[in-house]
Amino acid sequence: MGADIKSIKNRIRSIDSTLHVTKAMQLVASSKIKRAAEAASGASSYSDAVCAAMHDIVSPETAGSVFVAPKESGKTLIVAVAGDRGLAGGYNSNIIKLLTAEIAETDAAVLPVGRRIYDYCVHHGISLFDNVFRSSEKLTDNGIREISGAITEKFAAGEYRAVKVLGTRPVNVLTQTAEIKTVLPLERAGNGSPQTVFEPDAETVMNSAIPDYLTAVICAKIRKSFLSELYARRNAMDSATKNASEMIDRLNLSYNRARQSSITQEITEIVAGAENQ
């Protein structure tokens, strides 16, 4: 009986220690959400405007551009954004599942952003854009511009037939969706603005704007993915904290029952001993 009481007490201490960790991680995630939401909103609005402008440039005049004309050969480059850390529910695993499915269907190379996706690609021998680790949380705008410039050069050289960006979109605070989008070659969206005149010509303007276009798209995906990660981690830690609290309540009940049973047994033994005398 004494061993059972000690075992229950040790379990309570262990779970209580875990509860403190999950509470702390929940608070840290919550404290970062406001700033991350502002960054994601700003990056997303800018990206939408840039994408609309770029797709409007696509016309018969630019159909021969290397950034518009479909390619029959070459790899697909996938810029995959995941988290640097775990304990975020299905956030990282959903990205990995979508990436795995995409690679299974096409000859692809991956530019991973985030420790989890980088380690996964290295461990599974997936072809990489370069062997450089980039943090999804700490990657700066200048770092994203460098990535975009390198992608632009390799795509223009014919090394890749398409460029896709894979990340997570926060539907709301409780739901996040992994998604993939083709960003190159460009496609025309809607009727555009036929009265727009470009100097010196539309193709020159479009080609010079591609690095900025990629920077806007990749930056928006990274910022939205990081916000999704924070939502997912806060939700996961909230659930873990509630589960830990419930377990502690159940163990406290078991502990009290075991303690009461032990005291009753001791009293019974004392009474029995006194009667025998």
From TrEMBL:
Presence of the UniProt keyword Hydrolase in the record: no
BP-aspect Gene Ontology terms: proton motive force-driven plasma membrane ATP synthesis
Pfam families: ATP-synt
Keywords of the record: ATP synthesis, Cell membrane, CF(1), Hydrogen ion transport, Ion transport, Membrane, Transport
Tagged with keyword Cell membrane: yes
GO function terms (MF aspect): ATP binding; proton-transporting ATP synthase activity, rotational mechanism
Membrane topology according to the record: Peripheral membrane protein
Compartment(s): Cell membrane; Membrane
HAMAP family referenced in this protein's UniProt entry, alphabetically: ATP_synth_gamma_bact
Protein role: Produces ATP from ADP in the presence of a proton gradient across the membrane. The gamma chain is believed to be important in regulating ATPase activity and the flow of protons through the CF(0) complex.
NCBIfam families recorded: ATPsyn_F1gamma
Family: Belongs to the ATPase gamma chain family.
Protein name, UniProt field: ATP synthase gamma chain
Gene that specifies this protein: atpG
